[in-house]
């Protein structure tokens, strides 16, 4: 978390609801966090049948502040909060994905980040009956009389790259 004004940042990206109403927030895209593991990990450890069972499996997680500690899923018509086990924590989603690909443990990663790995069977989705609740991703910036063009261009670029409305 940064203080945009105090620390002189133009734009910050945040996942989930925003609490600071003095900032302008623009939705860039949405993501779903899904359970994934390598095929080798699944052969060695097995396929979990529930979130209760998966908590005993080795996990690799990304935690940044409070983000990443709890994720929501729909299961049997109800919303459940999954408290992410903190077996092995990292602050880089790329590092988490690499650890997962090597078979170190299972992880919760954004669907867009693992789509190619799932399609090419480098990763498998665990607990597919647990439907992840979408998380909005926002670009936000300090309110100014005139928004600099570099901010508008950057936000438009993010929206274009991730193919979402804003």
Provide the fold topology.
Elements: E1 12-15, E2 23-31, E3 33-37, H1 39-45, H2 51-54, E4 59-62, E5 70-75, E6 78-83, E7 88-90, H3 93-101, E8 106-110, H4 111-119, E9 124-126, E10 131-132, E11 135-142, H5 149-162
Parallel strand pairs: 4-7, 4-8
Antiparallel strand pairs: 1-11, 2-11, 3-8, 3-9, 5-6, 5-10
Structure write-up:
The chain has five helices and eleven strands. It is an alpha+beta fold. Strands 7-4-8-3-9 form a five-stranded mixed beta sheet. Strands 1-11-2 form a three-stranded antiparallel beta sheet, covered by helices on one side. Strands 6-5-10 form a three-stranded antiparallel beta sheet, with no helix packed on it. β5 and β6 form a beta hairpin.
Short description:
This protein is of the alpha+beta class and 166 residues long. The protein has helices at residues 39-45, 51-54, 93-101, 111-119, 149-162, and strands at 12-15, 23-31, 33-37, 59-62, 70-75, 78-83, 88-90, 106-110, 124-126, 131-132, 135-142.
Report mean pLDDT, rounded to a whole number: 85
Query: Which strand order do you get reading across the main beta sheet?
Result: 7-4-8-3-9
Oligomer: single chain
Q: Uncertain segments of ≥5 residues (pLDDT<50)? A: none
Helix and strand pattern: EEEHHEEEEHEHEEEH
- Helix segment tally: 5
Overall structural class, as computed from helix and strand content, comes to alpha+beta
Percent helix range: 25-40%
Terminal Cα separation, in Å? 22 Å
Number of strands: 11
CA-based shape: elongated
| Relative strand content | 25-35%
What value does the Rg take, in angstroms?
18 Å
Query: Main beta sheet, described?
Result: 5 strands, mixed
């Amino acid at each position: 978390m940064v203080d945009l004004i105090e620390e002189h940042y133009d734009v910050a990206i945040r996942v989930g609801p925003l609490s600071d109403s003095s900032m302008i927030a623009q939705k860039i895209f949405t993501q779903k966090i899904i359970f994934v593991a390598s095929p080798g990990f699944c052969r060695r450890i097995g396929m979990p049948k529930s979130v209760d069972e998966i908590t005993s499996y080795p996990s690799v997680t990304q935690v940044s502040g409070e983000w990443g500690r709890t994720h929501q899923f729909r299961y049997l018509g109800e919303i459940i909060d999954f408290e992410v086990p903190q077996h092995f924590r990292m602050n880089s989603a790329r590092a988490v994905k690499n650890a997962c690909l090597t078979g170190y443990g299972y992880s919760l990663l954004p669907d867009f980040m693992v789509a190619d790995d799932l399609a090419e069977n480098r990763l498998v989705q665990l607990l597919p009956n647990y439907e992840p609740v979408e998380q909005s991703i926002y670009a936000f910036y300090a309110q100014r009389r005139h928004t600099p063009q570099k901010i508008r261009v950057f936000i438009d670029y993010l929206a274009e790259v991730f193919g979402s409305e804003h």
